[in-house]
């Protein structure tokens, strides 16, 4: 595989750099370089800027409002945008349900839902996991019962990331409790979060933040027109979606940008003079380079209608381990500043730095859980790649 960029790719990279220099608001990039997480509002501001340029959905076909970029162009954009300190857009609409509707949805659904996903007018969340149905997702119990032109949905979803901001949720529900296999009785439906009977309750994670929620669905009416594809085929669409989710959680562009930032901080604090620390950093960079090449090799093999399959599990596993190692080294660089709370001199507890402090490290524990835990990815790799 030739990894050098062609003249056309170099021209594209220059175009991306020029766009970032002229359009990424300095206060938003400053958040990244101050080692803080981008807020939801900063992320959405960037979404609107990308939408105005026509770059918000690089991987969607042009016919549906995407940029139609090649995988290499997407990689170049991602790497450049993250290095410049841009927020990473949330995947739920653009990477998950959008592509599902493009592939499996009806014309009416595409016309209704794709434009506000692109414009950012409607924000989406993912309603798959339930208490007792995470790794064993097929055991989900949230049920949808047909009633005239509607389904009546009753149950609970959990760990729903940014559900507090969402107008819509794509959810897996049980439509046939008597199916011969649990996977065959599941459908995918689109639920308006403003419907009567929807209640969103925050879950505060170990880093003290509100990323995720419980969502309670109490006899929520969902029009039958919001069924995606065919009834009881939801498992097939979910598998398609999860393979795509795992590719994106490898998060190569962001991890590379974070390593560069970490290296700068380590140099400024004299940590690179410590041979043990320096060796660990070099190991991390080497593994990162190997992941990037593997990611590119894999993405270049994907074409229309071909998903990443079990290889996406490998990327998810490796990518999230690397992200956790970044936060571990960042804590070491921060030293005492990594403490989650500090006294502000007036007797008040003040929050410590997020990106390179305990907050980032604590939240990174979730990386090897969401999108399917590492143990589950290893099971998939051992069965489908190693044939064990
Ligand atoms: C921060 C965060 C955000 C999330 N966001 C979303 C979201 O937006 N939407 C959504 O639907 N879900 C979301 N999830 C849920 C996520 O997908 C699940 O947490 C994940 O699939 C694991 O399921 P579980 O939590 O029920 O753990 P369990 O399935 O109960 O697993 C517990 C432990 O047992 C291990 N284990 C389970 N089965 C096996 C097995 N067969 N072999 C070996 N080990 C096994 C697991 O690896 C894990 O260590 C999120 C989770 C987190 C933490």
Please, could you describe this protein's structure?
The chain is of the alpha+beta class. It has three domains: 7-89, Butyryl-Coa Dehydrogenase, subunit A, domain 1 (Orthogonal Bundle), CATH 1.10.540; 123-232, Butyryl-CoA Dehydrogenase, subunit A, domain 2 (Beta Barrel), CATH 2.40.110.10; 249-385, Butyryl-CoA Dehydrogenase, subunit A, domain 3, CATH 1.20.140.10. Helices cover 47% and strands 14% of the residues. The chain has twelve helices and nine strands. It has helices at residues 7-23, 26-33, 40-53, 71-83, 91-104, 107-119, 234-248, 252-268, 275-301, 311-334, 358-364, 374-385; strands at 124-127, 143-147, 150-157, 168-174, 186-192, 198-203, 212-223, 341-343, 349-351. The strands form three sheets. It has a four-stranded antiparallel β-sheet with strand order 2-3-7-6, with no helix packed on it. A three-stranded mixed β-sheet has the order 1-4-5. Strands 8-9 form a two-stranded antiparallel ribbon. Helix 7 (234-248) packs across helix 10 (311-334), helix 8 (252-268) packs parallel to helix 10 (311-334) and helix 10 (311-334) runs antiparallel to helix 12 (374-385). The longest helix has 27 residues, at 275-301. It is globular, with a radius of gyration of 22 Å. It starts with 6 loop residues before the first helix and ends with a helix. Residues 125-129, 134-135, 159-161, 211-212, 366, 369-370, 372-373, 375-376, 379 line the site of flavin-adenine dinucleotide (FAD).
């Amino acid at each position: 595989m030739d990894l050098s960029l062609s003249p056309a790719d170099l021209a594209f990279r220059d175009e991306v750099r020029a766009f970032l220099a002229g359009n990424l608001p300095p206060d938003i990039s400053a958040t990244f370089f101050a080692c803080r997480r981008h807020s939801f509002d900063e992320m959405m501001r960037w979404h609107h800027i990308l939408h105005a340029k026509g770059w918000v959905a690089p991987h969607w076909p042009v016919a549906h409002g995407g940029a139609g970029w090649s995988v290499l162009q997407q990689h170049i954009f991602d790497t450049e945008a993250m290095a410049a300190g841009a927020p990473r857009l949330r995947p739920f609409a653009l990477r998950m349900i959008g592509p599902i509707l493009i592939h499996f949805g009806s014309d009416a659904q595409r016309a209704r839902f794709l434009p506000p996903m692109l414009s950012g007018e409607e924000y989406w969340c993912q309603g798959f996991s339930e208490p007792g149905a995470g790794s064993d997702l097929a055991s989900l119990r949230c049920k949808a019962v047909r009633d005239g032109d509607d389904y009546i949905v009753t149950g609970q979803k959990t760990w729903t990331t940014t559900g507090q901001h969402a107008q819509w949720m794509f959810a897996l529900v049980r439509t046939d409790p008597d199916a011969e296999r649990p996977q065959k009785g599941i459908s995918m439906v689109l639920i308006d979060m403003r419907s009567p009977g929807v209640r969103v309750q925050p879950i505060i994670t170990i880093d003290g933040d509100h990323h995720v929620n419980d969502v309670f669905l109490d006899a929520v009416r969902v029009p039958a027109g919001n069924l995606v594809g065919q009834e009881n085929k939801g498992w097939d669409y979910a598998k398609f979606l999860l393979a795509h989710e795992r590719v994106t959680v490898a998060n190569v562009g962001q991890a590379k940008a974070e390593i560069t930032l970490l290296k700068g901080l380590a140099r400024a604090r004299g940590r690179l003079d410590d041979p043990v620390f320096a060796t660990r950093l070099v190991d991390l960079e080497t593994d990162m380079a190997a992941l990037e090449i593997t990611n590119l090799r894999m993405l270049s093999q994907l074409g229309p209608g071909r998903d990443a399959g079990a290889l996406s599990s490998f990327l998810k596993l490796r990518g999230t381990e690397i992200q956790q190692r970044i936060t571990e080294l960042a804590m070491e660089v921060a030293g005492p500043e990594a403490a989650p709370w500090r006294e502000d001199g007036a007797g008040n507890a003040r929050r410590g730095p997020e990106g390179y402090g305990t907050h980032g490290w604590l939240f990174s524990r979730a990386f090897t859980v969401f999108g399917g835990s590492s143990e589950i990815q290893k099971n998939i790799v051992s069965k489908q790649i190693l044939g064990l």
